[in-house]
Amino acid sequence: MANPSLLILAGDGIGPEVMTEVKKIIDWFGTKRGIAFDVSEDLVGGCAYDAHGTPLTDATMAKALAVDAVLLGAVGGPKYDNLDFSVKPERGLLRLRKEMDLYSNLRPAQCFDALADFSSLKREIVAGLDIVIVRELTSGIYFGEPRGIITEGNERVGINTQRYTESEIARVARSAFELARRRNNKVCSMEKANVMESGILWRQVVQEVHDKDYPDVELSHMYADAGAMQLTRWPKQFDVIVTDNLFGDMLSDLAAMLTGSLGMLPSASLGAPAANGRPKALYEPVHGSAPDIAGQGKANPIACILSFAMALRYSFDLGDEASRVEQAVEKVLADGLRTADLMGPEGGTPVSTSAMGDAVVAALDASL
Ligand code: NAI
Ligand code: MG
Fold first, then answer.
1. CATH code, domain carrying 227
2. 3-state class of 289 per DSSP?
3. What ipTM goes with this model?
């Protein structure tokens, strides 16, 4: 059987720096675990614009559609701020998400014990936290029509429309239930069925998909505002949360920040399962290209490393190996290694991007 295929799009700013560390881990799996990937690399974002005059060429798009998973670093930077909207670096990322039809955005909020004091919440509330927010990504109020700013009488009116079809709700619900089966069989769905018709339909369809195909998964429903309160009050009551595009945008940022630094946060965006059962998939750190620290060896590679761990789990059915990577990260942090973004007020000496990557590889070695 052919090796699983991986397209690496390192992008701009710190993207290539953090991706260099991920490549060490990919190589480690090939040499130490006999798990080899067919890795190809290409350009996205500003670097693609520099080379080709577009943030994503048709050829790169075709490659992204053909591989089992795409791993992306970051795009953008001040050098490209004045480009025309149509060729901005972010457009490359948006095109990938759209043409791969990545409707299910997974944002884990995982609190490594060594960083629990970094949270704005008390240690006992966040220590050991491990939840995933599944955000619908391709429909809802950011896309619904009509939209715009119109004039009515003598004043302006801003309009956006929340619109969800049954099939759009059903497919993201399925994605959440599948995820739950790989975790702890528990899903909480959040909407505002008390005041929004789209929320009423959301609740009905999630329940129907559950009753028909996932009766083994424990399902609860919560209003999204109450969900925000519960996430800060006692986040460990949740495991998988599924919600729409708008609520998911806010709740995923809220949940992620329970656990600390931007340099630690991975994400996955999944689409429909292909014939081989693997979903279309793009994995990327939540952070951007960090122009303020780019080129200085200061970037934290862990968000990108954990994004690769998500690829192992969700694209390649290698959940145990994903846990191995996560435990290696946990060990390195427990040993006290910190990149500059993880330094607390007590100070200390930060390690470089490459030293952090090397330490994770060493911890992987120690896991054998
Ligand atoms: P950013 O995430 O790049 O940086 C925000 C702050 O966090 C900066 O102080 C940065 O140094 C720090 N930071 C981010 N990642 C870090 C890491 N791995 N290690 C240590 N520190 C880290 O967001 P910002 O500054 O708003 O945007 C910079 C550029 O990135 C812009 O051009 C923006 O459009 C782009 N961007 C791209 C994204 C993507 O590719 N998915 C997402 C967000 C922003
Ligand atoms: Mg956001």
1. 3.40.718.10
2. coil
3. 0.98
